[in-house]
Amino acid sequence: MKFEAVLFDCDGVLVDSEPITNRVLREMLGELGWELTQDECMRHFVGKALKEELSIIAANTGRTVDGAWLSDFQLRRNAALMEQLEPIPNIHDAVHRIHAHHDARIACASGADRIKVEMQLRKVGLMDYFDGRIFSGYETPRSKPFPDVYLAAARALHADPRRCAVVEDTVTGVTAGVAAGATVFAYLPQGDDAALREAGAVEIFANMADLPLLMH
């Protein structure tokens, strides 16, 4: 099956950003009095738009968190990403091959804010593949696990969502891709794949070098 378009998540799929973002978030939640381990923080927040989790933070800290706190988080997060961010291993070759095989009909559809997504793609040298085809859950009515950002990406590429492939790495993202009607490939370099399969991923793979062949 040749897909009409391939839609990539960003964090954890194109760039290895989640451990960096997680550390900054844990530090800032600790400053509010909510101490979390790395695993706990990932479980609460990975794959989700932080702007939609502010009520959870307030409930666990007893402190009101507002747009100013979120802006401070974004500034501190972006500084750390600019200093430390690395691409996912083998992603450049995988994107290059998929871009060529699908006649450049690829997009990045992320739950993160656009500034972060574009900054990260520039940092790791992937922007040329996605420029003009970047979609943010901050700009759709609902973010992941709802399908809105994937539906927006498919619509912009004039592709039937049911004929699109989605590349994800979290249950939240897989759920969004499945809800859009797409075929979801889940990247899991290590760990238990049961939750991703239960969410509806049709293929789970551990090496980005394998992805182009899985899609042919």
Could you please describe the fold and organization of this structure?
The chain has 216 residues and is an alpha/beta fold. 48% of the residues lie in helices and 12% in strands. It has eleven helices and six strands. It has helices at 18-31, 38-45, 54-61, 67-84, 91-101, 114-124, 127-130, 148-156, 171-180, 194-199, 211-215; strands at 5-8, 106-110, 134-136, 164-168, 183-187, 203-205. It has a six-stranded parallel sheet with strand order 3-2-1-4-5-6, sandwiched between helices. β4, α9 (171-180) and β5 form a beta-alpha-beta unit. α1 (18-31) crosses α2 (38-45) and α4 runs parallel beside α6. The longest helix has 18 residues, at 67-84. The termini are close together. The mean pLDDT is 95.
Question: How does the helix and strand content classify structurally?
Answer: alpha/beta
**Strand tally, please?**
6
Radius of gyration: 17 Å
Shape: globular
Terminal residue distance: 6 Å
| Helix and strand pattern | EHHHHHEHHEHEHEHEH
Question: Mean pLDDT score, rounded?
Answer: 95
Strand order of the largest sheet: 3-2-1-4-5-6
- Extract low-pLDDT stretches: none
Helix share bin: 40-55%
Give a quick account of the main beta sheet: strands, pairing sense, barrel closure.
6 strands, parallel
Task: Report the β-strand fraction as a percent range.
Answer: 5-15%
Number of helices: 11
